[in-house]
């Protein structure tokens, strides 16, 4: 009598799933989608661009022949035509800073930051990606607006007896590019403050006080003997050294002002990165 032998069934293992690798490019794309999908981001950026352009054109059309009036006053007895065209930087700073704050604080207010940090457990790439998309959005936009404000303002002033400047004149192009860089730096400061404080109102208030209120309060509260030595290191005064062709006589040099302003941007970012790693979402 023969015995029937059955072969053991062959078990075919399921195909291995490809390992999902988290890359900075993926985080960057995610942050870009967040930025452009929120309507307030585009409106805030457009608002800053409009304030920059409108203020420059209005000042150029209202300043009088002797350099006084509704526009910026004379510098050393002469009017700086480049400063008149770029005077909208003062107004655009606050608006563009709000954009930087909202990039972070919106996620904390909605609780979506928990999902973001769960997907990117190392956390630092999230902050780096947010900074990258803000720089990539703000700098090209504000550079184009700065050029438009400069050429528009000079065209308006050329119709009267006011002196005008050309983009090729010494220091003019640097002032135009520097204005865009200063606005971008304020936006990055907004990102850092939004990450540190996790509050839209708190971060915007802190940024407003630092950029706008501190110079005025310093003039009122600081002793005269060392007032000028302190105030020139504030972010708004430091940026004035590389956003003007003829900065104030007591201002920092162009290189020193740029380094001081960069420190105002980098130090809060370092603090934000450390706190992001140490605190719970």
What is this structure's SSE topology?
Elements lengths: L23 H14 L1 H24 L18 H5 L3 H22 L1 H8 L4 H34 L14 H26 L2 H22 L2 H8 L3 H6 L13 H25 L3
Helix pairs in contact: 1-6, 2-4, 2-6, 4-6, 4-7, 4-8, 6-7, 7-8, 7-11, 8-9
Describe this structure in words.
This protein has 281 residues and is mostly helical. The protein has one domain. 69% of the residues lie in helices and 0% in strands. It is built from 11 helices and no strands. The radius of gyration is 26 Å and the shape is globular. 40% of the residues are buried.
Short description:
This protein has 281 residues and is mainly alpha-helical. The longest helix is centred in the middle third of the chain and has 34 residues, at 124-157.
**Major sheet characteristics:** none
Count of alpha/pi helices? 11
Roughly how much helix do the residues carry, as a percent range? 55-70%
Strand content: under 5%
Q: What would the average pLDDT be, to the nearest integer?
A: 84
Estimate nothing, just give the exact number of structural domains: 1
Order of helices and strands: HHHHHHHHHHH
Structural class by secondary-structure content? mainly alpha
The outline comes out as globular
Tell me how many strands there are. Answer: 0
Terminal CA distance reads 74 Å
Please state the CA-atom Rg, rounded to the nearest Å.
26 Å
Low-confidence parts, pLDDT < 50 over ≥5 residues?
66-78
């Amino acid at each position: 009598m023969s015995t029937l032998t059955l072969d053991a069934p062959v078990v075919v293992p399921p195909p291995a799933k490809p390992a999902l690798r988290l890359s900075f490019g993926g985080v960057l794309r995610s942050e870009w989608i967040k930025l452009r999908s929120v309507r307030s981001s585009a409106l805030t950026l457009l608002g800053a661009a409009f304030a920059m352009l409108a203020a420059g054109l209005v000042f150029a059309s209202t300043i009088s022949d002797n350099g006084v009036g509704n526009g910026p006053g004379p510098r050393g007895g002469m009017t700086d035509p480049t400063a008149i065209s770029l005077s909208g930087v003062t107004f655009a700073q606050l608006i563009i800073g709000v954009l930087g704050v909202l990039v972070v604080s919106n996620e904390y207010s909605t609780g979506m930051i928990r999902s973001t940090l769960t997907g990117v457990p190392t956390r630092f790439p999230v902050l780096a990606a947010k900074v990258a998309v803000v720089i990539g959005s703000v700098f090209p936009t504000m550079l184009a607006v700065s050029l438009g404000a400069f050429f528009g303002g000079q065209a308006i002033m050329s119709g009267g007896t006011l002196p005008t400047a050309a983009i090729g004149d010494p220091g003019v192009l640097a002032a135009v590019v520097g204005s865009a860089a200063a606005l971008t730096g304020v936006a990055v400061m907004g990102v850092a403050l939004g990450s540190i404080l996790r509050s839209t109102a708190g971060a915007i208030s802190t940024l407003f006080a630092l950029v706008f209120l501190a110079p005025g309060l310093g003039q009122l509260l600081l002793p005269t003997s060392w007032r000028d030595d302190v105030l020139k290191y504030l972010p708004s005064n430091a940026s004035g050294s590389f956003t003007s062709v003829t900065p104030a006589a007591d201002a920092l040099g162009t290189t020193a002002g740029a380094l001081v302003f960069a420190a105002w941007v980098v130090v809060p970012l370092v603090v934000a990165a450390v706190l992001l790693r140490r605190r719970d979402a």
